[in-house]
Write a structure and sequence with these properties.
Chains A, B: Residues 233-428 form the Mvd1 C-terminal domain. 2 copies of one chain form a homodimer. In chain A, 31% of the residues lie in helices and 22% in strands. By secondary structure, the first copy, chain A, is α+β, with helices and mostly antiparallel strands. In chain A, strands 1, 2, 7, 8, 9, 10 and 17 form a 7-stranded mixed β-sheet that branches. A 4-stranded antiparallel β-sheet of chain A has the order 3-6-11-12. In chain A, helix 2 (99-116) runs parallel beside helix 3 (146-161).
């Protein structure tokens, strides 16, 4: 048993205390990781930009932390002179009243009301400053939204530190989200809307709610990852010439200028939320895939209906859509079923959902159109599809119309990431701490 | 006075009769030309695919025939054994019941009812076969819809031949559309929906109508070309890798699968039709431009909301949008006014509307991003903007953010066409006939 595990037995789960020779005041610390989530029903538009209340409900799949994760160490000490945060080793300014500050204030309030006011013997962590270090194991250049996993990891680590919540240790044979994860999702939501969905594994709905105070705008788990473990995802990292419109700014431009968004919110999303939930519960891939693709298309349609228009898809994204559309056409003809579903967030990268057995075929198909220099961008073959050597193209499926796309310049897709559906935030061992004994990121020490 | 003018005095305008040694039966013939039109409020979706009744009203600008036109010669002879049609010198099969056949049947019916039944002395042209030759003076590769100008020229020439209508000769100092052009637009519409708008010059609305028989789905002139003669257009012919979805097929896919189209039809287009009409009547370029850009964006948005999605814009189209958006931003900052409006039909080509004085600046701006080999694609400088030599790039306008687009490979835009707002169909002189004395296209003789 590690020292951390001893301490975990002594203190409530998630709190670690130690003394060092240089620092005599008590120190509490938790490190947690949280997953990336990719929406099938997209979040685009806020009705309240401060509380981050959305104009429509959304639904996502949580991707495995074994492949993509944010890790956050939060340390509380009475000796810290101010609260500080480092993101990927770079210190960020914590602006009073801004998102991060608001999240931390909410967590402190919950610590005080739910823990300290009830048990005067616990240390008054709500009054101490924090040092927080957060790290994404995927490059920003991958174009994956890191704010969702980042704010989820921050919320999970501070919540555990404050004794508000016990996200499970990992690995665990019986992982299930803590009872109050939805309550914590209210806090993560205020950091970054879609972060609320990263507090659960599996399939997660963010219910838009009705209250103007946001109390009912929270995430719930529709089904755990164990419900449909064969659901895999292939992320195609697409080379993008220039940085697109930020989603924070973009979605409010859409709210202000798109006539079609109103119809999406009112007429389309409510029935899609209910249909995709049913599809997930029935493991009906055809319906799941069709709704996912339609909703990705519609999200990009309302971006285009914004004035001036917002574009996230580029010609490579469109070629991926054409290839998956043709693959599905051939498959429906042969078997009556769809094979894959594309979805695109606020950028040109594709996420392709499919059953695990199809991932290899899809990679081999894509490589006919998109030569990738795997020596420069190694493929992490976590599921051992290809044995030794790099993945390579294979002959086209029978009846496939090769002309749906041209062959692209090398590295138009600059990398592939294969992952699967995954669990929610995990409390990690002390050895994963990102802070050194002085409370600054180890990477800086 | 030419022989044709003599004949025009002898016979109703538009009818030409002559005898030849080889062909003793009387022959009547008219040649007419018709313009291209580019919609500001887009037509996309039919409620009746046979009668070609649209799901929403639309509005277009007629471009000058001096630059882009379809020319059609229609000849009627009792000696013709069957009705034949040549398009750009290639004979087309006239399928019974198909669009062309239906148009001709309607014209024959009108000839009989409106002319022959009233005056038994006129020749029974409605019972004779026709030879028709049509020619577009712009290459199909230019990606401009030729069916609109083509069916308009056909309708205008046969209508004149049948004495149904007297489209004016050109040049004419007092061009105005004939009183029954809207009635003829009912026929052109059945050939190709947007053809009905090419029966008028200037600004033309296609009112969707309500009748299930289509009798009220017709074109009307909102304002003649003389109302706003300084309105010019710059067509950017964009290289496109592959042929996109045909508009005929595409729009019905949208009708069947896009939820957002319903909202566009019901909530958006009616008010845009009225706003842009007011903007045109007031020569309010700011409103005209904004609505035009918004409606182009929304048309492409509903294409994207189609399942599978339809894409017509490519990365070059999007770069043009970004450049015009930035040019407008800088202009609004400096003067409070927009400079230019982009619009895109079912393809990647941009049409940019602007006041004549801005065309040169826009060309010089675009050339910074899109080098064009003018030796291979000569610029027809009809308005003498550049004097001798090819157009070339000029320094960016003050405050213009150059980074809105990268610099593209040579000939990503493969040509520029500068034109202006223009008139409706013209009856041409005999010397413009596309048919030789035997009644086959001169190009084949």
């Amino acid at each position: 048993m590690t020292r951390m595990h001893e301490l975990l037995e002594k203190y409530p789960v998630g709190k670690v205390s130690y003394l060092t020779s240089s620092l005599m005041s008590p120190v509490y610390q938790v490190t947690a990781s949280a997953p990336v989530n990719i929406a099938c029903i997209k979040y685009w538009g806020k009705r309240d930009t401060t509380l981050i209340l959305p104009t429509n409900s959304s639904l996502s799949v949580t991707l495995s932390q074994d492949n993509l994760r944010s890790t956050t160490t939060s340390r509380s000490s009475s000796s810290f002179e101010k609260t500080r945060l480092w993101l990927n080793g770079v210190e960020e300014v914590i602006k009073p009243g801004a998102r991060l500050d608001r999240c931390l204030a909410e967590l402190r309030r919950m610590r005080k009301e739910n823990v300290e006011d009830k048990d005067p013997s616990v240390p008054k962590l709500s009054t101490w400053n924090l040092h927080i270090a957060s790290y994404n194991n995927f490059p920003t250049a991958a174009g994956l939204a890191s704010s969702a996993s980042g704010f989820a990891a921050l919320t999970a680590s501070v919540a555990a530190l404050y004794g508000l919540n016990a996200f499970p240790q990992h690995p665990s044979s019986s992982y299930s989200p803590p009872a109050d994860a939805s309550q914590l999702s209210l806090i993560a939501r205020q950091g970054s809307g879609s972060a609320c969905r990263s507090l659960f594994g599996g399939f997660v709905a963010w219910e838009m709610g009705k209250d103007s105070n946001g109390r009912d705008s929270l995430a719930i788990q529709v089904a755990p990852e164990s419900h449909w473990p064969s659901l895999h995802a292939l992320i195609c990292v697409v080379n993008s010439g220039k940085k697109g419109t930020s989603s924070t700014a973009g979605m409010q431009e859409t709210v202000l200028t798109s006539e079609l968004l109103k119809s999406r919110i009112k007429d389309v999303v409510p029935s899609r939320m209910s249909s995709i939930t049913q599809a997930i519960l029935a493991k009906d891939f055809d319906s799941f895939a069709k709704i996912t693709m339609q909703d990705s298309n519609q999200f990009h349609a309302v971006c285009l209906d914004t004035f001036p228009p917002i574009f996230y898809l580029n010609d490579v994204s469109r070629a991926i859509i054409a290839i998956i559309t043709e693959l599905n056409r051939v498959s429906v003809e042969a078997t009556g079923h769809l094979v894959a579903a594309y979805t695109f967030d606020a950028g040109p990268n594709a996420v392709i959902y499919t059953e695990s057995e199809n991932i290899k075929t899809i990679i081999q198909l894509l490589l006919n159109y998109f030569p990738i220099d795997f020596a420069a961008s190694p493929f992490n073959d976590s599921f051992q599809l290809f044995g030794v050597g790099h993945p390579s193209a294979a002959p086209f499926p029978k009846g496939f119309n090769e002309n749906v796309s041209r062959v692209w310049e090398k590295d138009s897709i600059k990398g592939l990431i294969h992952t699967k559906i995954g669990d929610g935030p995990r409390v990690l061992g002390e050895e994963e701490s990102l802070l050194n004994v002085e409370g600054i990121p180890k990477t800086l020490a």
